[in-house]
Design a protein that fits this description.
With 373 residues, the protein is an alpha/beta fold. It has two domains: 285 residues, Rossmann fold, CATH 3.40.50.620; 75 residues, no CATH class. 50% of the residues lie in helices and 7% in strands. The protein is built from 13 helices and six strands. Strands 3-2-1-4-6-5 form a six-stranded mixed beta sheet, with helices on both faces.
Length: 373
């Protein structure tokens, strides 16, 4: 009970923390004006990255508000709200995100684009079967990812989202990717954003051909994002207090994992909105915080993740020949893969959650069969 009360105090502090309201209103009005002008400037469809985190939520809220003030006859181009599910996301976050997406789709189609619901899409991408985490780790024996061998990001995050964006480009000729990235997040992120800026334009280049990036909240601060989310109504009736509790339940690292569209995006393993199996970072501070704040059912997941991280560095668990035929630490042995699978299934029994699909289990069996031939 004390932990819950402490969370309530922390969330309440977001609403009472001093911030010049007139200055925030001025900034928000400028952002909405930029959103409106960019939307009306051309017929290029928008693909809005939505992770369910604070920055993407603030961005989508401002878009809903700005477009909602336009006459219906001016809402004539497609808007795609795009999320990515790696299939190994923190289950608590997945539940929250799915509820948000359902509300966004309902309000987007029935209110904002009621005149043309065919212009509004809500999509959640997933990796191809051959690119899923468990097929690569357990089936192929890939060692647990680290910062030097981050094999998961391209397969599970970048490829699914970029495939959808590329399909949109191929149908429409071009696409504008709308992201909730901010320069206030880090100096590295600010430098990366400046690198691709097009002088005199709101857009910047993207690595995909005929795709551009629009970041409407690029210049607002972390404090301003939270105050906006706490003080202004959510247009799809999402619970921003619940969002804040989700952040504050995990220590004080208030970053999020955005929609990943290239390798410049940092690992999300120590944030609220990342994969629960992420071993790229040393510790999963978010899950540690959730467990410490009463979500004890997540403890088996945290222990499993820590074990996977240690397993990677245990050479007795890996083959002594790499995939290229050279001597050195290679794939996990078949005994180790079997042990990983058994422990994963035990966690499913303990928690009541399905963490691996039947399709993945079948594909793993096929991998083992052909690799043993």
């Amino acid at each position: 009970m004390q932990d819950v009360l402490q969370l309530d105090v922390q969330v309440s502090s977001l609403k009472t923390e001093y911030l010049d309201r007139s200055q925030l209103d001025y900034k928000l009005n400028l952002i909405k004006q930029n959103i409106t002008e960019q939307y009306l400037e051309d017929s290029i469809p928008w693909v809005i990255g939505f992770s369910g985190g604070k920055d993407s939520t603030a961005t989508l809220q401002l878009i809903f508000d700005a477009l909602g003030e336009l006459p219906r006859e001016k809402l004539t181009k497609e808007v795609h709200v795009l999320s990515n599910d790696t299939l190994v996301e923190n289950p608590k976050v997945v539940d929250f995100l799915d509820r948000q997406l359902a509300k966004i789709e309902e309000v987007g189609k029935k209110k904002l684009f009621a005149h043309r619901p065919d212009l509004f899409y809500v999509i959640k991408t997933t990796p191809k079967l051959e690119d899923t985490f468990w097929l690569n780790l357990i089936g192929k024996g890939y060692p647990s990812p680290n910062r030097w061998f981050r094999w998961c990001t391209e397969r599970m995050k970048i490829a699914p989202t970029n495939h959808y964006i590329s399909e949109t480009v191929s149908r429409q000729g071009r696409a504008i990717i709308v992201l909730g990235t901010r320069k206030d997040e880090s100096s590295n992120r600010a430098n990366s954003m400046r690198q691709y800026e097009i002088y005199g334009m709101r857009l910047r280049k993207h690595s995909l051909p005929n795709a551009y990036v629009f970041a409407p909240i690029v210049d607002i601060t972390n404090q301003e994002v939270w105050r906006y989310l706490m003080d202004y109504p959510n247009p799809w009736s999402g619970n921003n207090d619940e969002l804040a509790r989700l952040y504050y339940s995990a220590f004080d690292d208030l970053r999020e994992c955005p929609l990943v569209v290239d390798l410049t995006t940092p690992s999300c393993g120590n944030t609220r909105f990342g994969c629960w199996v992420c071993t790229v970072v040393d510790q999963d501070k978010s899950m540690m915080g959730m467990v410490a704040n009463g979500e004890t059912w997540l403890e088996p997941l945290l222990n499993f993740r820590n074990w996977l991280s240690e397993l990677r560095d245990d050479l007795t668990k890996r083959m002594n020949v790499r995939r290229n035929g050279q001597k050195g630490p290679g794939a996990f042995t078949f005994v180790t893969r079997k042990e990983i699978l058994e422990r994963l299934l035990e966690i499913e029994n303990k928690t009541g959650y399905d963490f691996i699909t039947v399709s993945e289990l079948t594909a793993i069996q096929h991998q083992w069969y052909y690799q043993r031939q």
